[in-house]
Write a structure and sequence with these properties.
Oligomer: single chain
Structural class: alpha/beta
Bound molecules: D-glutamic acid
CATH class of the largest domain: Alpha Beta
Radius of gyration: 18 Å
Number of helices: 11
């Protein structure tokens, strides 16, 4: 599995709970983070390169693209290039949010790259055409937020969350009752977002459904309680200590990360 950086750890957390006996190789492409503010061709090139590296160097059985931006931009071409490899992507949870929202007024926080992708636009339009009744998706790109989470910079996280939740509130008015976290980094800003949006707004994340889907794709049964957990292999293309610290802070993992250059 991989992400542009530490954000995919939110997906790894759910995968470890769903598939505790499975060996995970997590790669943070931190030398190229953030993906969300790069152009699509560059994100696609990195995604293909990292996927080929994980296949060659680690003989993976399946790949989880733990990054909404990489999924939005490159999952189709990646599946074409690797037809024999099961690939699970991560997409903003618009459909679950429709199910949870009473008002039909839904905010979407994601990277610029995800929101501007044709894949996201197809997803949004498909839902708009399927749902009867009022439905509005208010999409807010969050430049800088993934990078602030990478740096664990609490003050920047707070400032940016304030800016983007205020913009959502301004656009949505009082009806806003669900906000999709359309970037795997954003669950790590959950406490700031919850404080700012209040308890009447449900935050919708995709990690658990993605973990369940990965288990189904691998044809595995739900984990028995007490299954032993092999430690994940942690790799980073820059600053492996930052990945180690994030894995320890958020997942309680005490694993050394290695620097790699796919
Ligand atoms: N975590 C990634 C996502 O889900 C990308 C964040 C970034 O690198 O911009 O979109």
């Amino acid at each position: 599995m991989f992400d542009s950086g530490v954000g995919g750890l939110s997906v790894l957390r759910a995968l470890l709970a769903e598939l505790p006996g499975t060996r995970f190789v997590y790669l943070a492409d931190s030398a190229f983070a953030p993906y969300g503010e790069r152009d699509a061709a560059e994100v696609s090139q990195r995604t293909h390169r990292v996927a080929s590296y994980l296949r060659k160097a680690h003989a993976i059985d399946a790949l989880v693209l733990a990054c909404n931006t990489a999924t939005a931009i490159a999952i189709d071409s990646l599946r074409k290039d690797h037809p024999d490899l099961p690939i699970v992507g991560v997409e903003p949870a618009l459909k679950p949010a429709v199910g949870l929202s009473q008002s039909g007024c839904i905010g979407v926080l994601a990277t610029r790259g995800t929101l501007e992708s044709p894949r996201f636009s197809v997803l949004r339009k498909r839902l708009m055409s399927q749902v009867t009744g009022p439905l509005r998706f208010l999409c807010q790109s969050c430049d800088g937020l993934a990078a602030a989470i990478e740096r664990n910079d609490d003050s920047a996280i707070q400032t940016l969350c304030e800016r983007y939740t205020l913009a959502l509130r301004d656009a949505a008015g009082p009806d806003l009752d669900a906000v999709v976290l359309g970037c795997t980094h954003y669950p790590f800003a959950m406490s700031a977002l919850t404080r700012l949006l209040g308890s009447s707004v449900t935050l919708v994340d995709t990690a658990v459904p993605v973990a369940r889907r990965t288990r189904e794709v691998l044809g595995l049964m739900p984990a028995a309680p007490g299954t032993s957990v092999p430690p994940p292999v942690l790799l980073a293309t820059r600053d492996p200590q930052a990945l180690e610290q994030a894995a320890s802070r958020w997942l309680g993992l005490l694993t050394t990360a290695r620097l790699v250059h796919p």
